[in-house]
Amino acid sequence: MNAPKIFVARLLGLDVFDPLGDRLGRMRDAVVTERGPGQPPVAVGIVIEVPGKKRVFVPMTRVTSMGAGQIITTGLINLRRFERRGAELMVAADLFDRRVTLADGSGQAVLEDLGLEQQRNGDWLVSDLYVRRHASRSAFGRVRGEHLLVGWGEARWAAREEPQGASSFVAAHEDLKAADLADVLHEMTAKRRVEVAAELQDGRLADVLQELPDDDQVEIISNLDIERAADVLEEMDPDDAADLLHELSDSQQELLLELMEPEDADDVRRLMEYEENTAGSVMTPVPVIMPPEATVAEALANIRQQEFTPAMASLVIVARPPLETPTGRYLGVVHFQRLLRYPPPEPLGNILDKDLEPVSDLMPLPAVTRELATYNLTCIPVVNEHHRVVGAVTVDDVLDHLLPDDWRSMDEPEEVS
């Protein structure tokens, strides 16, 4: 090893390479195991995120260098998805933000980093704790939170059952996409999952919730303050919020809907009226809808809005006013590529694709899926019995219902070199 001592927080996010310089993935955590009372834990490996957003375990015996902006391993990596064993602890996920009591009697502190030191036999033991002493107010009114580096034996851990913060963990994972952070939360204990969720901003938590299994969603939303839970539901896509509310009791549903902004609640209520596994139950009720008089330039400006996913922005639905769903009569669509082929002043009504038939809001989801596949679409309009647009179904809406409930943990073990 290049260095006899390392600090875990400084390694998080570093690229991991094989001996030939090929990138294997990115480090996301370190794994330690406890050895008994009074003995420092031993680091047994690191968790890296490989292409495909899967997290795999690399034993410390296969790590040849850590530091200098990169991590080097031997070439052989087991691509089985990492699953912790009973005695294992994740440094960033389980230990960061844990409360400790300092042995010198100076009070309590919160762990922000953890030092590992290599022994002569090659083992990596926890040697140091980088902690932030609880903030105190000075005589001049300033709030101070002193940072200290203490040895393993100079602090006593709080009981695992006690509440634990999550600010350090959230900061260390702020670069993760919502789906990837959802995978991390899914692997946590129920207690830790709720603690981390409570630390996330409403919009970030809403994005993460949409990527989690139903049980995890219900667990998190049920442990939030009721008013904050309503705020998070407002940030979610209406179809995902409706799916989540369906998992709650009738009394919980009504209370949360009453606390939501009326406009957001109305969208969700409308989706909840549909039978499960119909187009109406999974559609997005606010697709891109414009009148036939709108120009190509206006349409391109509209679909640039960040709130529209790439799938939703792939076509503009053209309808008669009113343009809020349910709209006036459906006229047709204009595909994104078609917008690029016409001059900016061209009215949408002149370049309509009238051959694309919308689907009924009562159409079974398998039939909707076949329509998307048959015509190579990423988005299709949804109309009601009066041929008024009520929403749109995208390919990502149907994928969530096609995949098995446990798809996040499905993979086969394999070796790469």
TrEMBL record:
Xref: CDD domains: CBS_pair_Mg_transporter
InterPro entries the record matches: CBS_dom, CBS_dom_sf, Mg_transptr_MgtE_intracell_dom, MgtE_N_sf, MgtE_transporter, SH3_actinomycetes
Start and end residues of each CBS domain: 283-351, 352-412
Gene Ontology molecular function, alphabetical: magnesium ion transmembrane transporter activity
UniProt keyword Amino-acid biosynthesis present: no
Pfam families registered for this protein in UniProt: CBS, MgtE_N, SH3_actinomycetes
Alphabetical keyword list: CBS domain
GO cellular component: membrane
Top-rank taxon, per record: Bacteria
Entry protein name: Mg/Co/Ni transporter MgtE
